[in-house]
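Deviations from the work plan: none for this task. Representative record:
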Amino acid sequence: MVLLGSETGPAVKTESEPTKPQPAGSDTPAAATTCVTFRLRASLAHRSLAIDLVSTLVEHVSTADRSFRNAITTAFGEAFNNIVIHAYKDRTDGMLDVEAELGSDHMTLKLMDDGVQADLSNVDEPNLENLPEGGLGIFMIRALVDEVVYNSGSPNVLSLTKRTTPAQDRAATAGAGPAPSRESASK
Amino acid sequence: MNCIRTDNDTDSRLELDGALDALTAPDIRPIFDKVVADGRRRVTVDIAKVTMIDSSGVGAIVSLFKRVKADGGQVLVVGARDQPLAVLKLLKLDRVFGL
């Protein structure tokens, strides 16, 4: 269920960050970002809706292409699965808050839950040569976005940042595998 | 997610339509299980109409692939494009599946 105005507040909220003042002598304006938040029940039944929302938000990252959209929506979907299946295991009342920061050249998604904290540092890298049938979600998240940050607490916050790639870089890296993402975690 | 199975001699074709993910994969697995139980020798999984796939969906296809292969059969995945193709390439399954 997506909450559309209730005691928990509006489901979708949009805020534009003011352009930061530039240092004297700077000719380059700071890129403005827009922050959008939404909240929905953490249920696999709402997975498709959540991904559709993220996909729509990608349209507001002006330099994003199809590859960017596929990567961020796939990573978000895996993170969504983990929260529903693991963080809220045996619970049906879990809520997921998503905060999306949209810039012209990047997108950051913060997924916040009040479930069981994850231990991303203790997830083994799958051996793809063995054709694993499970344990691929965290690997996919790490491979698809540029930065993964997890802070356990109340709430747990998983932050995924994906940056767009300049056209000349895309041409140079066409056919190459995913670049390793930076990752950090704290408690 | 819909799955249409078409049999021809010892071959089977599975045409998937929709999102193959953590929500729908549990519904598709019994269809895959039946294909394995029936001892089909050559299985073609057509995912041209799959709009999105996640690790659960990939796991279902990999499970089918491994079981059919263990029985001496063959699984081909055809029609992958856009997000499903990107995911299969990421997991180095494009060559395994004959894409």
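The domain at 2-90 of chain B is CATH 3.30.750.24 (Transcription Regulator spoIIAA).
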